[in-house]
Every structure is written in structure tokens, then in C-alpha cells.
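User: C-alpha cells for this one?
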Amino acid sequence: MALRHHGSGRTRADRLRSVGTSNRVVFAPLGLVRFCRPRHELRKEVVTPSASPIRAGLILELTKRDFTERFAGSALGGLWAFIWPLVNLAVYLIIFSKIMGARLPGQSNAYAYGVYLTAGLLPWLAFSGTFGRSAGIFIEKKQIISKLRVSLPSLLLYVSLAETVTFLIGMGFFLIFLAATGWRFTEHLVLVPFIYITQQVLAFALGLLCASLTVFVRDLKEVVGVVLQLWFWFTPIVYVKDVVPRWLQEIMVFNPAYVLADAYQKIFAYQQPPRLDSLILLTLAAHGLTGAAYAVFRGLEKDIRDFL
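Assistant:
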């Protein structure tokens, strides 16, 4: 005999069959109470992570806002995006080389050390800025993530794009200075864009990996800052490799930042070709790390969105 609920003419089987066809509280097996919605409504609400689109307009708007908010309230506004790189270049190229008299071993040009320093420092600032800021980007933009269906990795693109704009401004002033002082350019200059792309792919991969984990371990963002500070001083950017102990020189080839800085410095300061074998290996490693970081992100994406 079918059981009937008190006060109702429907059997429990009839009530269970109503699950998924109306919005009501039903008595599920084992006495559990379940609130059910029609199946056609559930299909509308289910959004797979892979369905989140890359919004090019949003990336460009965030990049623009990155500069406007950085200099908001100042009289010169966006002009500071050009003034600061110019001031930094004056420090690197004039104060260090002319006033402090820093010299690059094996080079007679008075500006050689300034060129060496600038060639390594400009790319490092773009790399460290992209990596460091990307580590906390999901937390920083959680309001956008909660309101818009957006691909989370695409948020890292705006950070990289903003740092690239700053890099291009600084590099533009740098090239103007070199041309004005009669510095010799070589055909190896065409390799600079490819080196920069490899550098930013590596920064993106590291940033995506740390951004995925920082959502759960907030201290990781501060750890990234400490790592970048140590990484900078263990990379021969403000000094030449020959001043460090021999054992450190031997393991320095495994430092990707050294491979990148050395490539820029060879092209600009020494007018020599960079080591292509090291750059090719680094390019492959950067793309491999990007794939691994994306796999980690996809495995954690649902939890990331829930935490945010």
C-alpha cells in the first residue's frame, strides 16, 4: 500500500516525482528536506569555468584605469607616466656614469655602465611588476569576478599590458639617448621583442600559479615580494657577474632572470649576440610552466570562485 502524508491526498511517491518540476519543499528519502527548482532553470544557471569569456574591452579598460588611478588628483595626470621613466633614466645613465663615475670593465665609453644598468633594469622592472602584481590579482579584483563572467587568467593580461606600456615608454627614451650619444646599434636589436615576450610569458606563468594559491594562502603575496627582492640581488643587474664567487657564477646559469638580463646587456652594452641556446631553453620552459600553471588553476578554479 502506498503511504500517504497526513492532510494530503497525494502519496509520497507522487510527491517525490514532483522533484525537479516545481519550486517546493519535498520530503526526500531518509527524511532529508530538499528545495528543488525546475530542471530547465538549473540548466540556465549552470556555467562551466571554460565558458567564461576573455573580455578584451575589460582588459583595455583596466589597463587605462591602472594609469589614471595611479596619477589621480595630480595636475599633470598621465604625463607622469612619461616623467618617471625619464627621471629614472637620468639617474641610471647620467648620475651613475657621469657624476659617480661608475665604469663597466672592458669598456671605455663613459656611459657604458649606465647602459649596462639600464639594459638590465628596465626589463626586470616589467618582469617583477607583472609577477608581483599578478600574485594578488584575483583578490584585488574579486568584485569584478563576483559580478561579471570573466576568464580569470585574462585579468593577468591587463597587468602585463600595463607593465609593457611602461616598459615601452622607458625603452623609447633609452633608445633616443643611445642614438643622441652616438651609441652603435647592431642587428641583434631585432631580438629584443622576442626576449621580452619570453620574459612576460614566464612572469605570466609564475603570476598565474601564485594567484591561484594566494586565494587560499594570503601570505603568499608577501612571500612573492620577498622572493623578488632576493632574486633581484642574486641577478647581475647592478653588478657584473665576475664580482661574485666562482661557485655562484656556475649556478647562475640556472637563474632565468640572469639569462634574460644577460641577453639584454649583451645586445645593448656589449653589442654582442645573446646566447641563443639559453634563450631557446628558457622559452620552452616558460611555455611549459604556463601550461602547468594553467592546469593547476583549472583544478582549483571552482574553489577559487567560491572563496572569492
